[in-house]
Amino acid sequence: MAIVDGAQPAFSGDAKSITESTIFVLTILFWSWFLNWVSFRFESLKWLTASPPMTLVEDGRLCRANLRKALMTREELTQQLREEGIESLDRVHHVIMEGDGRISVIKKEDA
């Protein structure tokens, strides 16, 4: 999103020069690459770019505090579950939000 915002003035003619927008975009790309490289190279700095997995549902019960931390509503979660073919929380053993924001669903054995 920041790249689009930074490049937009160059395309709309509002920038003083195209160089200004190019430098901004290259700076964002560099820092993104650099932080990913640092977190890959030095395990102790992984927290800079990766979030740990977060349990949103455990044994069919919502973990409301984690749902709040994930900035996700119950409706958004149930939509994700419906996309996985799950109609009720009773059929879920765990729902985990992975570090990259994807949702992993582990169904109950008897479901």
Automatic annotation (TrEMBL):
<keyword id="KW-1133">Transmembrane helix</keyword>
<feature type="transmembrane region" description="Helical">
    <location>
        <begin position="21"/>
        <end position="38"/>
    </location>
</feature>
<dbReference type="GO" id="GO:0005886">
    <property type="term" value="C:plasma membrane"/>
</dbReference>
<feature type="domain" description="YetF C-terminal">
    <location>
        <begin position="43"/>
        <end position="110"/>
    </location>
</feature>
<comment type="similarity">
    <text>Belongs to the UPF0702 family.</text>
</comment>
<dbReference type="InterPro" id="IPR023090">
    <property type="entry name" value="UPF0702_alpha/beta_dom_sf"/>
</dbReference>
<keyword id="KW-1003">Cell membrane</keyword>
<dbReference type="Pfam" id="PF04239">
    <property type="entry name" value="DUF421"/>
</dbReference>
<keyword id="KW-0812">Transmembrane</keyword>
<keyword id="KW-0472">Membrane</keyword>
<protein>
    <submittedName>
        <fullName>DUF421 domain-containing protein</fullName>
    </submittedName>
</protein>
<dbReference type="InterPro" id="IPR007353">
    <property type="entry name" value="DUF421"/>
</dbReference>
